[in-house]
Amino acid sequence: MKKVRARYAPSPTGLLHIGNARTALFNYLFARHYGGDFIIRIEDTDVARNVPGGEESQLHYLKWLGLTWDEGPDIGGPFGPYHQLKRLDLYKKYADQLLEQGLAYKDYKENSTKYAIRFKVPEGKTYVFDDVIRGRLSFDSKEVEDWIIVKDNGIPTYNFAVVIDDHFMEITHVFRGEEHITNTPKQIMVYEAFGWEVPTFGHMTIIVNENKKKLSKRDTNTVQFIGEYHKMGYLPQAMLNFLSLLGWSPTGENEILGHDELVSLFDEKRLSAAPSYFDKQKLAYINSRYMKLLSMDELKDLTRPFLVEAGIEIPSEVWFENLLAVLKDRLSYGQEIVKYYNEFFHNTFTISEEVMAEMEAFDYLPVLQLLREKFEALDFNDADLINQTIGSVGKELNVKGKGLFMPVRIATTGEAHGPSLPVSLLLLGKEKVLSRLNQILEKKGS
Ligand code: GLU
Asked: Which CATH architecture has domain 297-443?
């Protein structure tokens, strides 16, 4: 078998979008799975639509996701250049050849010497190809009108340039969005005109939002650019994993798959043509799974900028570590630290009726009264001491387990369940803990 060569060929008309990233990823996984090459080529011939910084952003965030490439605009390679605008001579040469052979013709603008070049679509032909994802697709040549291969400014159109490039870059497989299905017969005509081998195509499923509508860049309900997820504190390995499941599925039950597992499990036969739902909850879940694997230092690096940005002071590293120990299991992504921080320390402290009912199940007043007394005399600088103090209350009143800890937890944090109680109390600090205890005790008239 020929060495597999797949490519990602973005137009630098914007930042790296979810859909682009998924296209890049599937071509990448396919190439890596078969030990082939992965190439990046910039399709910048639609000059008016190119945005400054578009290309850099694309490459930057592909790297962030963990993709590497063997050839590309930044690193060069044996089949360069990798920008279409730097290959205009090549396209001209092949357009001229088609003109000479009578397979294309000049289409003059009215009253002008300027002309576009049109491909002469053969009559009575059927163009058939076996799409890896959709099976056999076929188009009659009468469905396609003579189309422009070179515009009157000398710049080739996408459908022409893509064939020249895929041929000379020895691309064997092309995975791309389904909007390119109807472009494929045009491209096959060009391959046939030159007698070149046609690569294998796979047209991927669309990605839809919760209303089953194709994800559109104008849809403000869904965050769609990879850079925005980075800014919110999502992890690249989680994004990679999530993207891989947009139109592909592994054979087993386990969907939490790292880079190397994805490369080894990737199977183009498991690409689906059914619309793929962009499930935000699933993304948050996958991200939370990867967050749990972070070391304390990594977690600190991820969350610190959000606290700083929100103007939240970090009094000491120990305090920060305690905060993360208490809140980390709730976080789906880095930025959420601010929300949970605010909830944890919120000043207008309330206990819901539901949680209050849980506390009422215990004889809690004596526990809270004695605890208040002991806490008033205690310096809040050590979680162990706080723990011992709670324990001594239990001993003196002869209450243990839930009967002791539930009232303390609910009265001070407003929640019936949560992470380490002594560390939570240490973080809240003596003043807040006492004021919360007072709040309940005063309500009960004690
Ligand atoms: N530049 C095209 C796009 O961004 C590439 C399509 C293809 O892969 O052939 O949609």
From this structure: Orthogonal Bundle (1.10)
For domain 1-69+205-293, the CATH superfamily is HUPs (3.40.50.620)
Nearest to 48 by CA among 153, 142, 122: 153
* Atom of ligand 1 minimally distant from the CA of 187: 9
Whether 180 lines ligand 1, by a CB cut-off of 6 Å, is: yes
Angle formed by the axes of helices 364-376 and 383-397, nearest 10°: 140
pTM reported for the whole predicted model: 0.92
Which residue ranges does the chain devote to CATH 3.40.50.620? 1-69+205-293
The distance between the two most distant Cα atoms of the chain, rounded to a whole number of Å, is 104
Question: DSSP letters of 27-76?
Answer: HHHHHHHTT-EEEE-B----GGG--TTHHHHHHHHHHHHT---SBBTTTB
SS3 198: coil
Is residue 17 in contact with ligand 1, taking CB distance under 6 Å?
no
Q: Is 227 exposed, middle or buried (0-12, 13-18, 19+ CB in 10 A)?
A: middle
> CA-to-CA distance for 177 and 17, rounded, in angstroms?
13
Which tokens hold the place of 28? Answer: 């990448």
- In single-letter form, the type of residue at position 157 comes to T
Dihedrals phi, psi of 241, to nearest 5 degrees: -60, -45
Residue owning the nearest CA to atom 4 of ligand 1: 10
Given the residues 106, 114, 217, 400, select the one marked as catalytic.
Answer: 217
Contact in structure between 153 and 43 (CB atoms under 8 Å): no
CA distance 434 to 389: 14
Whether residue 434 contacts residue 388, with contact meaning beta carbons closer than 8 Å, is answered with no
* Model confidence pLDDT, tens digit, residues 278-312: 999 999 999 999 999 999 999 999 999 999 999 99
For residue 13, which atom of ligand 1 is closest to its CA?
4
What count of other Cβ atoms lies within 10 Å of the Cβ of residue 190? Answer: 24
Q: At what angle do helices 430-443 and 421-428 cross, to 10 degrees?
A: 100
Q: Where in the chain is the domain with CATH 1.10.10.350?
A: 297-443
| H or E stretch at 137 | strand 135-140
pLDDT in tens, 408-432: 999 999 999 988 999 999 999 999 9
- CA 238 to ligand 1 centroid distance, Å: 25
The tokens describing 164, both together, are: 């020249």
